[in-house]
Amino acid sequence: MSQSLRITEIFHSLQGEARTVGWPTVFVRLTGCPLRCGYCDTTYAFKGGKVLSFAEILERVAGFGARHVTVTGGEPLAQPGCTELLRQLCDRGYEVSLETSGALDVAPVDPRVSKVMDLKTPSSGESARNRYENIALLTERDQVKFVIGDEADYRWSVEQLEAHDLPGRCEVLFSPVADVLPPARLAEWILRDRLPVRFQLQLHKILWGDEAGR
Description:
The chain has helices spanning 54-63, 82-91, 151-163, 183-193, 203-208, and strands at 4-14, 24-30, 50-53, 68-72, 95-100, 114-118, 143-148, 171-176, 198-199. By secondary structure, the protein is α/β, with parallel strands linked by helices.
């Protein structure tokens, strides 16, 4: 297996989403993604980047002195070496999370990694790419995220909750598409329907807007 990956950026920030929101975290953003979601906010990671060896990546991560590391993209699993990087990060004692689209097989991911997996909603334009076989591989360490752009997305997401018993398997996150669905509206729907899900906003956007690398 290759001991290098194409990397868009490695940076230190506060985790803006999921279970570890607010914790100082090192983000390793891999280059490339086979999906083209309509609401994507990291299109700059589709191309370019720089090939770094695992040793260089691990050295940069260690330099920030953080306990939490998130491997993200793009779609990090599109690079086969991603799973080996995740394993090596776990071996070094980091609390490791993986942000993945849910379109690629998560079976090879080290069980010590907390998977934050999207199920793509209809408004993303990529819902046909959802790999539902991944759901059976999720555990209480993991999270499923729905990014919701309108009421049709919301209704579809509720259907997935029930069809796959997601709250009985892992934590479920509902997020509004930024600047499309008013956050309060989504919050009201969740409360109205008494859903067992966690509402979340992207903390980093509240703090820094869409500034890359923050």
